[in-house]
Design goal:
alpha/beta, 2 domains, 10 strands, about 15% strand, Glyco_trans_2-like, Nucleotide-diphossugar_trans, Glycosyltransferase family 2 protein, Glycosyltransf_2
Length: about 350
């Protein structure tokens, strides 16, 4: 099978053939735009959508975006399995040499893969991300995205992990947001797949494990991925259990023996960060279910959690105070200007 007539012909099994994987749940309103942005890329020979037991007609909306080239395939789960399981199923069902992840409410900037695949010698390759406020989508035009000089460089394990530790009062910019293209051969050689226990941080976990076994992770400044910022995103509604599982994934990697030096130290710091968030959330859950007396009793049973719980409670109170003092009740902030995961020199 080849790409659509009228485009440059890319053989499905060639070194530059790309399979775009979209895990989708209740994404009927956005899945069409995501698929269209993938199908217009000439290097894309497969688009596999995994409908993770949606209840809103996501599969029908996905089929409506088909361009007739034969590249679109849809897999539907009868019961929700989570994004990691959905992506693993798509990887197993695909045959292209390169795997590219696209979230169901995001989109590719035209020409993304031409820029991203220009350089060789990598196992994972990612580009810059433009964050677009949902309220700006109606007037968004890809030509408004700033052009940066590519400046290819390799991302190391300590830097990647450190850039996934969120900082209070800083705009979100974790490198786990990156959506790299991954070489199938590298994934197969190292037996790498998404951790299906995770519903939070599954991207961070996979990329960290890839770097731990020697992946050459290239990033460029050119912006080829559009991430839509929504106040009701799934990543902003994670469960307490999701935090526990992510901390467990860090601990499993620490126990594997593959880490050393600064990479080992960085993963330890990330594990402490996530564990602290988990203990704070667990304290709040216990308080909601059993009252303050039950929450305090929980602390006494888990003394090592007292410090992160106290820190979390303090920062929650401080943030609430600052918000009340800086915003009028009921006010809605204006949509933000376009922002980028990382900046660089303008392209000539």
């Amino acid at each position: 099978m080849t790409a659509q007539a009228g485009r440059k012909t890319i053989a499905k099994g060639s070194d530059d053939s790309v399979c775009v994987i979209i895990a989708a749940m209740n994404a009927a309103d956005t899945i069409g735009a995501a698929i269209a942005s993938a199908l217009r890329e000439e290097q894309v020979t497969e688009v596999i959508v995994v409908d993770d037991a949606s209840a809103d007609g996501t599969s029908e909306a996905a089929w409506a975006a088909d361009d007739g080239s034969g590249r679109l395939r849809i897999i539907r789960f009868d019961a929700n399995q989570g994004p990691a399981r959905a992506r693993n199923q798509a990887i197993a069902s695909s045959s292209a040499a390169l795997i590219s992840i696209l979230d169901a409410d995001d989109f590719f900037i035209p020409g993304r893969f031409t820029h991203l695949l220009a350089e060789k010698g990598w196992d994972l390759a990612a580009d810059n991300i433009v964050f677009v406020d949902q309220r700006r989508l109606g007037g968004f035009n890809a030509s408004s995205v700033e052009r940066f000089s590519p400046e290819p460089r390799l991302l190391d394990l300590p830097t990647f992990v450190e850039r996934n530790i969120s900082r209070r009062n800083r705009q979100r910019g974790e490198l786990g947001f990156l959506k790299p293209v991954m070489r199938r051969e590298f994934l197969e050689r190292h037996g790498l797949r998404y951790n299906e226990k995770l519903r939070l941080g599954e991207d961070y976990d996979l990329y960290t494990r890839a770097l731990a076994v020697g992946a050459r992770f290239q990033i460029i400044n050119n912006c080829g991925y559009g991430a839509v910022v929504r106040p009701d995103s799934l990543s902003g509604r994670h469960r307490t259990e999701d935090l526990r599982q992510l901390a467990e994934a860090d601990r499993a990697l620490l126990a594997s023996g593959v880490l050393s030096g600064e990479g080992l130290k960085a993963v330890r710091r990330h594990e402490r960060h996530i564990s602290g968030k988990y203990h704070h959330r667990q304290f709040l859950d216990t308080k909601a279910q059993q009252g303050i007396a039950g929450a305090l009793a929980h602390c006494l049973k888990h003394p090592s959690a007292i410090a992160p719980i106290a820190h979390g409670v303090f920062t929650d109170k401080l943030d609430g105070f600052l918000q009340r003092g800086g915003k009028k009740a009921g006010s809605v902030p204006a949509p933000a200007e376009l922002r980028y995961l990382f900046s660089g020199p303008a392209a000539e």
